[in-house]
Specification:
By secondary structure, the protein is mainly α. The protein contains nine helices and no strands. Helix content is 83%, strand content 0%.
């Protein structure tokens, strides 16, 4: 064999490379989960200090400005998609329910589905695109520009002044957006049911009130708060660990969107399982 020709790859070498690839991805996953967890502990610590000590303030102006900047931008798209989801549910549920003479029960299905699942989930996905990517890019640019080091040089903690306001802002914003999404989706389903399926408006509204309980809204808002916190933590974590200049900022933004969506869906699965076990469904 010519000395310049490479030896053919054996089955053993391919298997070893596959194992190495899987092991490396698993280690990266553990590192990222651990990093987000430590960042959460640090954020919770600063919030606890602010609530128990008058000398430490989180900065209401910073939190409100972040809520306006991150959450207010998503209001329009949340309303638009929630309206579409409510109409889709009403249109898709009518044929099977009509076969059983239960067309008026569209209200029951739309109300429960939106309050428990679709409201917080749709809002979280939208906020990931608006807030998650923006926060990761913003914090990452600060890291590349040396602004984080400048804060540390002035004895200012980056977690306290950068991360905490953004995590609180995404949490508050997502809870508010979820309430808005619930209202718009239910109203959209009612509009389609009344004007397309000829369901009396009073009957639709009565069925919604009978079917939906306070726990349905509460579970949805709890999910929204956790989803918002996850989006804020993941975006800040990816932003703080940016390396490689502008290309690193782009990678962090992409990783934030993917990781946030995956985390939100798996968190939703965990919450749904817990609520099902507790018979809160």
């Amino acid at each position: 064999m010519n000395e310049f020709e490479s030896e053919p790859e054996t089955t053993t070498s391919r298997a070893l490379r596959s194992v190495e690839f899987i092991g490396q991805r698993w280690l990266d996953f553990q590192r990222n989960v651990g990093g987000v967890w430590y960042l959460f502990v640090d954020v919770a610590s600063w919030i606890g200090r602010a609530l128990t000590s008058r000398r430490i303030r989180l900065g209401r102006v910073a939190i409100v400005s972040q809520v306006v900047r991150l959450g207010a931008r998503a209001i329009g798209i949340v309303m638009l998609l929630s309206m579409a989801i409510g109409a889709i549910l009403a249109l898709q549920m009518e044929p099977p329910l009509r076969d059983f003479g239960q067309t008026d029960k569209i209200a029951n299905i739309v109300g429960v589905a939106v309050l428990r699942e679709l409201g917080p989930l749709i809002s979280a996905v939208i906020l990931t695109g608006f807030a998650g990517a923006a926060v990761a890019a913003e914090v990452g640019t600060m890291v590349v520009g040396g602004e984080i080091e400048a804060l540390e040089a002035h004895a200012l903690n980056p977690v306290r002044f950068l991360v905490v306001p953004r995590v609180l802002a995404t949490t508050i914003s997502l809870v508010c957006l979820t309430v808005l999404a619930d209202i718009v989706a239910i109203a959209s389903g009612m509009f389609v049911s009344v004007y397309v399926h000829n369901v009396p408006a009073v009957q639709y509204w009565d069925n919604t009130l009978v079917q939906c309980e306070a726990k349905d809204l509460l579970t949805g808002l709890v999910k929204a708060a956790v989803f918002g916190m996850l989006i804020g933590l993941i975006s800040c974590y990816n932003g703080l660990r940016v390396t490689g200049g502008a290309a690193g900022v782009g990678r962090a933004t992409t990783a934030t969107v993917v990781a946030s969506v995956v985390s939100v869906i798996f968190a939703d699965l965990i919450f749904t399982t817990i609520f099902f076990a507790l018979e809160w469904t």
